Amino acid sequence: MLSVQLRHAFPGFSLDLSFEAPAGVTILFGRSGSGKTSVVNAVAGILTPDAGRIAVGDAVLLDTARGIRVRPHRRRIGYVFQDARLFPHLTVRQNLRYGAWFAPKDAPRGDFAGVVDLLGIGHLLDRRPSALSGGETSRVAIGRALLSAPRLILADEPLASLDAARKAEILPYLERLRDAATVPILYVTHSVSEAARLATTVVALKNGRLADLGSPQRVLGDPSVLPGGPREVGALLFARVATHHSDGLTELDAAGVPLFLPRVDQPPGTILRLRIPAHDVILCRTRPEGISTLNIVPGRIVEIRPGEGPGALVTMETQAGRLLSRITRRSAAALGLKVGMSVHAAVKSVAIAPADIGPGAGTD
Amino acid sequence: MALSLKVSFWATAASLPFGLFTAYALARWSFPGKQFLNGLVHLPLVLPPVVTGYLLLLTFGRSGWLGAWLAEIGIVFAFRWTGAALAAAIMAFPLMVRAIRLSIEAVDRRLEQAGATLGASPPWVFVTLTLPMILPGILAGTILAFAKAMGEFGATITFVSNIPGQTRTIPTAIYAFLQVPGGEGSALKLVLVSVVVAMGAVLLSEVLARRVAARIGGA
């Protein structure tokens, strides 16, 4: 478990927050300039805050009150930098082994073959970093951090410099890592999709302060803490792959509710997380007839939250989980929507982006 | 000829650790007197070589304050080949420091930070990351310094004179041959030798630098 308390004044910006991150992947989430990278740098020891305390499990890395400040190379943090920072004069193999060389002798040895296999970089071992593609570079950087026998892995927007196709290539590796890792991971991003697919816990930052902390289902549904505001609000559902149909659709089972998606490349039985953007969910008072939408989910309204503009965010409880719908206030009035009312949510199959779907069970 | 190579080799080899240290200090550290040190290092480049030679004589001569003390423990520079090497080293030092300093300043500090997060202490970061990355600069500085040492004349002749077999390096020998009638032939041979050596040094540095650059992937 990671516990962080920080106070630091930058010119024109101040950081003042504290949070505790449980095991698994903790997403540090916020728009650029919210202090995400500063938090990560403070944990790594690259930034020394004015005051604070940082501990991973029993190991206190920083405690300004007691004058403890462990130097960066003794912190045993596996840091995956946004710009990878592979060593150009070493081969991929040497880059991967670099950290293990300095790790304490009694530290658990990273499983070299296992990590290489997990990240699919076996064929790259004898190359130099300059001969790698962007996606390969990211994977090697992740492997290098994993193999340094770290207490904690920090990842500072490791995918931010990659295009959508490369991101789609790496995210599955990160999901495998989340499910295999024994050390906690602190992962910085401003992408809702990455947060939705990877998070065990989401820590939302705003102007150097803690805005929210909690499960991705809850935090990613709160427009006030999302970097992109109401446009990025969505629900996170968990569903099991039921069958693949011959017309190219995959049928999911979300706690008994069937959902149809364009083919998802996962074997039946796999648990998926899928983010359903609130602006893609249509609300109907009665079960809609003669409509092209395949997914109709009945539910009951539990909250109607008017936005600052013409919109409103409607939360409904369904058998599949909480769904969010962003509609106009005018529609809400026209339909006479009220808390407690039964409604049907319609979700187009093709509205759910492949980037928002990935394997992974929920935590609560 | 052999003497010239010996002088230049020792001048370069002995000044390399100091050059590396000075370059690192100038590139990375901030300390009082930094600009003074910088000026001191560059002084031989801008002073007339004769002045440098004379200052060396004043300092390291048998009656010089440092020379007298060193003579007591058996180290004599004045009018010895070691003195020629010292003069050559001092004259070549600024070139070496400049080349190495530039390469240190070009190193991406973020890579060193990455090394630290992977558990490497500062000395290990230097040995495993900084040093390999500045190797081309060290190479260039060393070869430049070697070539400069081979050609050093003014400070040498002032400090250690032009004693055959002791301090007669190629440039001073050429000068000596040109002073006597009919010496042009011998002088020309030495001129050719020095052209070949200088050219060889430049080509060698080029090849080595390219090989290193290729190894680290043009970074």
Automatic annotation (TrEMBL), chain A:
- Keyword set includes Magnesium: no
- The superkingdom listed in its UniProt entry is Bacteria
A single GO cellular-component term from the record reads: membrane
What's the name of the protein? Answer: Molybdate transport system ATP-binding protein
* Upper taxonomic lineage: Bacteria, Pseudomonadati, Pseudomonadota, Alphaproteobacteria, Rhodobacterales
Q: Which NCBIfam families match?
A: modC_ABC (TIGR02142)
Alphabetized, the UniProt keywords read:
ATP-binding, Cell inner membrane, Cell membrane, Membrane, Molybdenum, Nucleotide-binding, Translocase, Transport
Stretches assigned to the ABC transporter domain: 1-232
TrEMBL record, chain B:
A Pfam family annotated for this UniProt entry: BPD_transp_1
- Domain (ABC transmembrane type-1) ranges: 1-203
Which Gene3D superfamilies does the record associate with it? MetI-like
Q: Where are the transmembrane segments?
A: 83-104, 124-147, 159-178, 190-209
Q: Which UniProt keywords apply?
A: Cell inner membrane, Cell membrane, Membrane, Molybdenum, Transmembrane, Transmembrane helix, Transport
Q: Does the keyword Cell inner membrane apply?
A: yes
Provide the primary localization.
membrane
Where, subcellularly, is it found?
Answer: Cell inner membrane; Cell membrane
Gene Ontology CC: plasma membrane
Q: Does the keyword Transmembrane apply?
A: yes
One GO molecular function term of this record is: molybdate ion transmembrane transporter activity
The record, for NCBIfam families, names: modB_ABC, PRK09421.1
By sequence similarity, the record places it as follows: Belongs to the binding-protein-dependent transport system permease family. CysTW subfamily.
> Which PANTHER family does the record associate with it?
MOLYBDENUM TRANSPORT SYSTEM PERMEASE PROTEIN MODB (PTHR30183:SF3)
Q: What does this protein do?
A: Part of the binding-protein-dependent transport system for molybdenum; probably responsible for the translocation of the substrate across the membrane.
**Protein name, per record:** Molybdenum transport system permease
- Species assigned in the record: Palleronia aestuarii
